[in-house]
Design goal:
The protein is α/β, with parallel strands linked by helices and 258 residues long. 36% of the residues lie in helices and 17% in strands. It folds into two domains: 3-187, Rossmann fold, CATH 3.40.50.150; 197-256, Orthogonal Bundle (Helicase, Ruva Protein, domain 3). The strands form three sheets. It has a four-stranded parallel sheet. Strands 6-9-7 form a three-stranded antiparallel sheet. It has a two-stranded antiparallel sheet with strand order 1-8. α8 crosses α12 and α9 (197-209) packs across α12. The termini are far apart. The model is unreliable at 1-9 (pLDDT under 50).
């Protein structure tokens, strides 16, 4: 594939075999027999995934890459899906089976990949992969940091997340202008929310949309009672609240509306 085509797709292709093997080894192989690699390109990571016990499938939007994989990875057989991951109903590929997600994710859709994983969390017990370092750090960040935000809270509500290692630009073609970071997301044993999910998302997003303000000011649009707004938690800024604190806050707001 041409460098121009790669840039058009927003993807920087991994060329370092050692890093590829290291990413393949980030999968714990617990709770699933299937793995979906997103954006395999020329298969540098794929070859190591195929050495594992689980069954590997790949999803790739670029037709040149699909043709290359079909010619050079015959052991993938009919498990090459020439589709847009973000527009694909993943149950069509895996039915009711559990599957993990991995890959060197295109920077321009990496956040959307995480949100889609959350939508399919009943089927996806684990995600590992490479992101732009700043995004990887944001997903794994804990409260009290400027990097902690909407993506951190919502992802960590359902998954335990670990930042694993940093990858330099030199191992890609074309080299990106920033470092990359690899993370692992493992679904929590109890990943159900004890509050209304839409309200939880709304509270988190509304709070962080004006993150410099206290929650008393940023959550005004939720029409809360004066009694609730007087509570101490509303004097805090959103980055000061843990994931559990956001869940507790959502519960209070939910009860306040009854």
């Amino acid at each position: 594939m041409s460098v121009r085509a790669k840039k058009h797709l927003g993807q920087h292709f991994l060329t370092d075999e050692t890093i590829a093997k290291k990413i393949a080894n980030t999968l714990t192989e617990n709770g699933y027999d299937n793995v979906l690699e997103i954006g395999p390109g020329m298969g540098v990571l794929t070859k190591y995934l195929l050495q594992k016990k689980y069954t590997t499938s790949v999803i790739e939007i670029d037709t040149e890459s699909v043709e290359y994989l079909e010619k050079n990875y015959l052991n993938l057989a009919n498990r090459i899906h020439s589709k847009d991951f973000l527009k694909t109903d993943l149950t069509e590929i895996f039915q009711d089976n559990q599957f993990a997600v991995t890959g060197n994710f295109p920077y321009n859709i990496s956040t959307q990949i995480v949100f889609k994983t959350l939508d399919y969390r009943d089927s996806i017990p684990e995600l590992t992969g490479m992101f732009q370092k700043e995004v990887a750090e944001r997903i794994a960040e804990k409260e009290g940091s400027k990097k902690y935000g909407i993506l951190s809270v919502i992802a960590q509500a359902f998954y335990d997340i670990e930042y694993l290692f940093t990858v330099p630009p030199s191992v890609f073609n074309p080299p990106p202008k920033v470092d990359s970071g690899v993370i692992r997301m493992v679904r929590k044993k109890d990943y159900s929310l004890p509050v209304d999910e839409k309200l939880f998302y709304r509270v988190v997003k509304t709070g962080f949309n004006q993150r410099r303000k206290t929650l008393r000011n940023s959550l005004k649009t939720l029409n809360l009672s004066d009694e609730l707004r007087a509570e101490e938690v509303f004097s805090k800024r959103p980055e000061q609240l843990s994931v559990q604190a956001f869940i507790d806050l959502t519960s209070k707001i939910q009860n306040d509306a009854i």
